[in-house]
């Protein structure tokens, strides 16, 4: 004890919050669990209830790193009755809703200690709109250093309405009324009649949608560095995560004998209509859209003509090789960093060097698409599925919009000089063989999640389990055996990059190398130390750094947390701390019965030149899109296939690359657990 006191005396108050024991991980997990549990009801945790009743957020400003400025702003809005009421839909793309959610986020980010953060969260949960509250909590847990080891419960169990069909939610209510435990079958929104959607409806997966939400939480367009720090390569990450969604969707389409998706065009009708079969918890059904709708101007958002003008300004910048800043000066984009600037411009985020001139192509397009059912606000409809990251992929227009944007990015990447032999060569290193252990085979498996948080209830009546199950794609585990010869005469750090792309389109026409590589799906990236001579590297599919595991269910999280708290044991949820990768079950595209052929490329590049941080070969957790600190790989995303390939023979001459063909099978297997 004495040494602690001495330490405090010496270090002064700055250390107080660190030395006075920070809450345990189990305690933090408990708090976040209960702050998000039954978020549309009153708080259930006794301590939290007490905070909500008696805490005065402005009483002691020493607990805030901004001297209470953020909390003063939010409390004033609350006292003036200016905040969105509870039991109302929330949309991030609604400027006022977002502003309110971010006021709470700002408060939480400036809390110096865990207790103050929890007190504020409990206090505002009882007083703010539920959607705004959930958004602020998720964003703060991801970005606040004090919450580093907290696992966020699966979003599809916190706000099930956004992920679950209306019919299933209605059945859940009926089960609640009967007080009988129930398992309800969920099906996808793609109807049997619509062959476009039917084939690939499984891609609109609860995990894919959660990945999409989390990515936009890690790298939000509204981010200001004053919240915490600069987000490294945010614009380039925006390009890459959506490029990967787009090329993966195309690979799934080809697996199902469909053509790659066509890009959206502002002056052509939106061919695919859809009925989302989803409802807001508060605010009625999500709007549908009939087939072949012409784009209309959306009141208060944008005119179609504005979109066309912004598009041509961006393409002009690409043709000229520079972006014009607000002060009229130029940013050269004819280099590896150009894609980062362009991503900020196209999204656009607050990092855009000139949003005044280049607009916000991506964000405005989402709202434009979402409002086509009611462009003039005549029917007072709630926002469309495109206006929420949770539901956006339910609209087939989502992938067409992103194909359109991906083509703009390609225009830029294709304007850069091709890589030369010297750019690609890793002298003295050659990949002599690549073999796959196990078959590349996918199947469907029923996945269960809870609808407890979908139904209203009271504390007096005990919960009965109400679950839904939905078929989800998965694959049999496999590994890569990569044989590498190092003739450098000394140990060498290497980056191993694994990509695959469909060998032919759905009519069996082979892709050129240049078109193939633009459709490359990133399967893995990791670092190894190569000893002199020949070594075989074995890498498991489950270790892929581009993917994450399914998060345990809300109930499992709660049980593990309470067990750790009561038994004083350690809570080990380390595997689930980041949810920003693709679900591992989606690592492989579905393939088909005959075996869909893919080109498999394994590229071994110079790790010493690539690495942005030290000791990557010892780190299993290279998190693909982590927003903390520096992105580990200095190379552009998609390297070495991100640039136009003038002459593919160069890829055959470079010894540190290996090109082979593999087949992915799908035999219609479906595992039921009931």
Can you give a write-up of this model?
The protein has helices spanning 2-11, 16-19, 25-36, 46-54, 69-79, 95-109, 114-125, 130-143, 155-158, 166-178, 195-200, 206-218, 234-255, 304-320, 338-347, 355-358, 361-370, 396-414, 421-424, 513-518, 554-567, 607-610, 649-653, and strands at 182-185, 322-324, 330-332, 429-437, 441-450, 466-475, 479-486, 492-502, 521-530, 533-540, 547-548, 582-583, 596-606, 657-671. It is an alpha+beta fold and 674 residues long. The chain folds into three domains: 25-152, Hemocyanin, N-terminal domain; 192-415, di-copper center containing domain from catechol oxidase (Orthogonal Bundle), CATH 1.10.1280; 421-438 and 479-546 and 584-666, Immunoglobulin-like, CATH 2.60.40. The protein has a seven-stranded mixed sheet with strand order 1-6-5-14-13-8-9. It has a three-stranded antiparallel sheet with strand order 4-7-10, with no helix packed on it. It is globular and about 70 Å long. The relative contact order is 0.12.
What's this entry about, in short?
The chain is of the alpha+beta class and 674 residues long. The chain has 3 domains: 25-152, Hemocyanin, N-terminal domain; 192-415, Di-copper center containing domain from catechol oxidase (di-copper center containing domain from catechol oxidase); 421-438 and 479-546 and 584-666, Immunoglobulin-like, CATH 2.60.40. It contains 23 helices and 14 strands.
